[in-house]
Specification:
- The chain is an alpha+beta fold.
- Helix content is 18%, strand content 24%.
- It has five helices and eleven strands, in the order H-E-E-H-H-E-E-E-H-E-H-E-E-E-E-E.
- The strands form two sheets. Strands 1, 2, 3, 4, 6, 9 and 11 form a seven-stranded antiparallel beta sheet that branches.
- The protein is globular.
């Protein structure tokens, strides 16, 4: 998977100019596209990410812990694309500044990063070397669970952070609109942090309030605001 990813033609994003992020990316339209291009490992990884739409919807529909808050009052649709991102290590590495993957339209000018979109759930799959050392190599996903919706940096009083090491094969799932997060710079020269990202989308239909989907704080049953954005 990693070797296929690094053999793709990757390009910097326009946000590099503003020092927002320094990854190089490629978009994959569908698993079948990977197969036709002779990229079987990427195709299998894309199928895994695409399949989570159905699996998560079933999981959400089965939750009933007696609470009144809906998990996600929408039907999830599969991703339209999978994004591959590679962050190169060394001096001057930026990573990706704190952001949310989907923000309310009313705050787009205030925040200055990102736009409102249909993203509901973010799924990440890491394809790094087995000996990746988060302390030495960096590149962790720094999450700010429980951050206030007006907190765009994770630096407000009382905010907490949680680092997730980008270990090979690790899968991370969170709510796109809720979780403030950033990618820490890759420290080591010659190291390349590789991740696949997919976003489950708003399918356009609300979940009926009398369905088993409506109750439940989150599929894991957690009411802790510090963990409620994760699955």
């Amino acid at each position: 998977l990693r070797s296929e990813a690094l053999n793709l033609k990757l390009a910097a994003t326009p946000q590099l100019r503003d020092q927002v992020r320094d990854d190089r990316i490629a978009w994959l339209a569908a698993p079948d596209e990977c197969d036709t291009k002779g990229l079987p490992a990427l195709g299998d990884a894309a199928r895994l990410l695409f399949g989570f739409a159905h699996a998560l919807q079933e999981r959400i529909n089965s939750v009933d812990d007696g609470s009144s808050a809906p998990v996600l009052n929408v039907c999830l649709a599969p991703p339209k694309h999978v994004m591959l991102a590679a962050y190169h290590g060394g001096d001057g590495s930026i990573g990706y500044v704190a952001h949310r993957d989907n923000i309310p339209k009313a705050r787009t000018k205030e925040v200055g990063i990102g736009v409102e979109n249909d993203r509901q759930v973010t799924i990440l799959l890491y394809a790094n070397e087995g000996d990746w050392d988060a302390e030495k190599d960096g590149g962790c996903l720094r999450c700010y669970p429980g951050a206030d919706e007006a907190d765009d940096e994770g630096d407000q009083p009382g905010s907490i952070s949680q680092d997730v090491a980008p270990r090979a094969g690790r899968l991370v799932i969170f709510r796109s609109r809720d979780l403030l997060h950033r990618v820490l710079p890759v420290k080591s020269n010659g190291r390349i942090r590789v991740a696949l990202s997919a976003w489950l989308l708003d399918g356009g239909a609300e979940v009926p309030t009398d369905s088993p989907t409506a109750p439940g704080a989150d599929p894991g049953g957690s009411s802790d605001p510090a963990t409620a954005h994760f699955w």
